[in-house]
Each structure stands twice: as structure tokens, then as C-alpha cells.
Amino acid sequence: MKELISFWKHIPEHINPVAFRIGSIQVHYYGLMYLSAFLVVYLLVLYRLKTENIGFKKEVIVNYFTWLILAVLIGGRFGYVLFYDLFYYFKHPLEIFLPFDINNGFQYTGLYGMSYHGALIAIIIASVIFCRKYKLNFWLLADLLAPVVPLGYTFGRLGNFINGELYGRVTKVPWGMYFPLDLTNQLRHPSQLYEMLFEGVFLFVILWSIRKKIRIPGGLFSLYLIGYGVIRFLLEFFRQPDQQLGFVVGYLTMGQVLCLIMAMAGLILLIKQSKFNLDRRL
Fold first, then answer.
1. What is the pTM of this model?
2. Residues 6 or more apart in contact with residue 160 via CB below 8 angstroms
3. Which of 136, 167, 172 minimizes the C-alpha distance to 54?
């Protein structure tokens, strides 16, 4: 049993985040996890269209996913810059979208740092513009995506774990792990796995199971905002605060502040849409 526990604790130290190389370019598992996330969400959306008669044509969704992918990548990157390291990137603006280190020679490094909340904001903006352009119902589109998106985040958090990044706070629990990026070499919560399980799998199961029962326009989207916001807010207590930020409001991290705003927005939206739906019936 001791050998098994010891093996578990040191798993991150034996994981190579690089899947393979193409010349000087390294292809990381993290990037492959992004591809897997997009594919899973896309297939589940098509499944919903086929089995639930939601009202969108497949061609529309294929077109929309180009917008969605760009929104995730651009919004996620800009969100990280804005919310988590603005002063650094203000001094190094080229590094926002330049995946090369030009200070120590011309070396490919990839892009480090993506923000979930930045991606979410960009997706909402892109979706509103897309729906206005093609005269579609935004709430119908939001409710189509809401139950399946958490499963996509499962792959993202797995990618964080493989990278050994976003690890948890110091702990003594027997399932704690040692992460190679932790220079203090202390036992820590595997917070990426917590988030993968609860923000991803758990939230997906809940929303997927009730997707046909919610009749309020924007209802599923509202519940998604509340669910993710509350779950991540709680899990952030196990996650190591970002080194460059630390705690931003009392003992709350930037992620927790953004999640509080997100959950409150979801609650307000749910109340508003419920009232609107009730008034329309009357």
C-alpha cells in the first residue's frame, strides 16, 4: 500500500508534457487536449441537434464552431493578459500572441497562460454577434451549448495536470502529489484533478440530465453560469493562488472574484428569464 501511495504522489514528476516534436516545434498534450475538447463538444452538440429537434441546422453549427474556436483562443489569451499578468505584458506586448522567445535567440516556446473567464466573455460576445448576423435566437444557442461545454473543460484540466501547472496548495492528505514546477517540492493538492472531476464531469452530468426539463429560455445557460461559478469558487480554496497576483480581495483569488461575479450574473439572468417567461404565459 505504501508503494502505491508513493507511486501516486510522484506521478506528475514522470509525465512528459511534450507529446511529440516536429523539428524544433514541440507539440504538447495540452494542445491536443484543446483539440479533444472542441471535438467532444462539437459531437455532443450535433447529437443534441439530431435527437432533440432543437431547431438549428447542422450547417449553421459548423459555421458557428469556427467563431467559437477563435473566441476561445483569442478571449482566453486576452483574458489571461488582462486578469492575471497585465503589467508584464504591458512591458512585453509582443509575447501576447508571439509564441517565440526573442530575448534568448529565436526559440519556439508556445503561448503560456489562458483564462477561462476571458474565453467565456469572448464566446458570449461572438455568439451575440453571430446570432444577430444570421438572425438566430441567442438563448436557444446558449442553451444548446451549456450542457455539453463542461465535458470539454474536462480535457482542459487534464492538460493542466499533464503540464504540472495550476497545482494546489500545500497539504498533508494521502492523495497529495509532488509537482515538478513547484520549486519548494512540497506535497500539494492535485487541484487540476478536482476541477476536472467537478467543473467538468460532475457539472456535465447534472446539466445533461436536466437539459430536457428546463423550459425557460436561457435557463440552462443561467444554471451553467451558477454551477460553474459556485463549484470553481469552492475549489479555488484548494488551488495555489497565481504567484504574480496572490490574493486580490482578502483571502480570495482573482479566479474566485470572477466566479462570484459569474454566479451572481447567472442568478440574476435566471430570475429575469423566469419572470419574462411567466409574464409571457400570462
1. 0.91
2. 30, 166, 192, 195
3. 136
